[in-house]
Specification:
About 35% of the residues lie in helices and about 10% in strands. The protein has about 500 residues and is an alpha/beta fold. The longest helix has about 45 residues.
């Protein structure tokens, strides 16, 4: 062997000697780097301890360097057999091994892979504060508070808890807290009266009104059953004289009198441009209706037009249609704005424009229209404004049914002012939830255009402000039910704004 070959093999001899002496692999590599005997081994370097044990035993026993490199065991393990120089890596001075031989002999290692793990994490800045062993020498003792708080996982957990806490505070302040407070108030308003046995509002004696129908029940043949060939009920919110929009809505629904029945939830007249045409259309379709506050005012104005002029008992009454009555020129007109500055003139003018059949149709509209039981909806009724929970339909106050928007939780007295108490629908739905399932009922109503379309569990608000440029909405009952049941859906059309405009407002719009 020449001198260059001996110099090249010297690092390998020293490596094997240190390995046989029991030195750890990382210490041998560190020593070699410090002495500049070899360069940093490449990634494909395979250390001697990963060789087959028989090759190391053969080298230890015979001590012959030449035979160790030329041993049959190494040749079988995958060493290159092209020549002696091919067994050595010229850059590192260590034996070269093919990938097949390395992975074949890796399972026969004498030392576990954990011996090759380094503790570089102790000084790596990515892991936070540098590690220093405790003074008592217990290197594996419990970590201190600084180490715990500087851990990345701990910071993530603390951040998640803080975000959850902030979210809960906002949810409590804006939603959970008010909901819980409202629930307790509604429950207390109902429980105290039920447990104490006190009377409800409306259970006392109520005067009867001869010129008003309090309650009417819909023909049972018109109630949807959910089967094939079942009819549909179409309940429309406040029309307010918007005849074109009502016709468009019915066309959108493919309305046909033989299969559908129309119900108008009050205020089908007044404010809009075509109140008589709306009543005439309802008559032609044989539609049902309920009395709203505007119908009530117009009917009162009509009665006043035909009763305010005294005449002898022998003189026959004039025609009920006030359009045929002409007052004396010296008397103020019944529709003069100066004579009736509080809006009565508008109602009187509208009453004068309606025919006797149209007046009779409006007068026959009940305050409450009871539809009857419908699956998933309970006992269904249609009113214009609302109902007081716990009071029978025949004992409801008709004035409140046509005008209420809120209710007092302490007295259960309804009010037309939305700011006095809570919306009556909240107390109504809470009360229905406390009743047995067979006694629950749903109320369909209009009147409250400020709240718009409100579809609660046991109440459905359908006034979406058509005359103000909103929409005209209808609740369709009897189609789209699950497994042949009675389903509901809402259909609406856009409306024009029919409100009178001042000159300044028109100039800005």
């Amino acid at each position: 062997m020449d001198h260059d070959e001996a110099q090249r093999r010297r690092p390998m001899q020293e490596y094997v000697r240190l390995y046989n002496a029991g030195r750890p692999l990382h210490e041998i590599q560190r020593m070699f780097r410090e002495q500049h005997l070899v360069h940093e081994p490449p990634m494909t370097f395979s250390p001697p301890h990963s060789l087959h044990p028989s090759s190391l035993e053969q080298y230890r026993d015979e001590g012959d360097e030449k035979r160790w490199f030329d041993s049959p065991t190494l040749s079988d393990g995958g060493w290159s057999s092209a020549g002696e120089d091919d067994h050595m890596d010229k850059e590192t001075g260590f034996p070269a091994m093919s990938a097949h031989a390395y992975y074949k002999n890796a399972s026969l290692t004498q030392r576990p892979l954990v011996s090759r793990v380094r503790n570089d994490w102790r000084t790596d800045p990515r892991y936070g504060q540098s590690y220093s062993p405790p003074p008592d020498g217990d290197e594996y003792g419990p970590p201190d508070c600084i180490q715990i708080m500087s851990a990345r996982k701990f910071r993530r957990v603390v951040g998640l808890l803080l975000v959850s806490l902030v979210f809960f505070c906002f949810a409590w302040a804006w939603w959970l807290g008010p909901k819980l407070s409202e629930h307790l108030m509604l429950k207390g308003s109902l429980d105290t009266r039920i447990k104490a046995g006190k009377g409800w509002f409306g259970v006392n004696m109520r005067p009867k009104f001869a010129d008003m129908v309090q309650l009417e029940t819909l023909d049972a043949s018109l109630i949807p059953t959910g089967g094939r060939g079942s009819k549909r009920l179409i309940i429309v919110g406040d029309v307010h004289g918007c005849k074109d929009e009502l016709s468009e809505l019915l066309s959108k629904l493919s309305f046909h009198p033989s299969t559908d029945h129309l119900i108008l939830a009050g205020d089908l007249i007044s404010k809009g441009p075509s109140s008589p045409a709306v009543v005439s259309l309802a008559l032609s379709l044989n539609a049902s209706c309920v009395r709203g506050n505007h119908e009530d005012r117009v009917l009162l104005a009509h009665r006043d037009l035909n009763s305010r002029h005294l005449r002898p008992a022998s003189m026959p009454m004039p025609d009920l249609n006030p359009v045929h009555y002409t007052p004396h020129p010296s008397q103020p007109s019944d529709t003069d704005n100066n004579a009736f500055p509080h809006g009565d003139a508008t109602d009187r003018a509208l009453a004068a424009s309606l025919s006797p059949s149209e007046i009779a149709y409006l007068a026959a509209c009940p305050v409450i229209l009871r539809i009857g039981p419908i699956p998933t909806m309970g006992d269904v009724s249609v009113v214009h404004a609302g109902l007081v929970p716990g009071v029978a339909l025949e004992r409801q106050d008709p004035s409140a049914v046509m005008s209420m928007r809120s209710i007092d939780l302490g007295t259960h007295v309804p009010s037309r002012d939305a700011n006095e108490g809570v919306p009556w629908t909240k107390l109504w739905n809470k009360y229905q939830g406390m009743l047995p399932k067979r006694q629950r009922s749903t109320v369909l109503y209009g009147h409250d255009s400020k709240r718009g379309l409100v579809l609660d569990r046991w109440s459905k608000g359908l006034d979406t402000g058509c005359v103000k440029g909103g929409r005209l909405s209808a609740l369709v009952v009897g189609e789209g039910g699950w497994r042949g049941g009675v389903g509901t859906r809402v259909v609406s059309v856009k409306c024009r704004d029919y409100r009178p405009r001042e000159l300044g407002v028109l100039g800005q719009s």
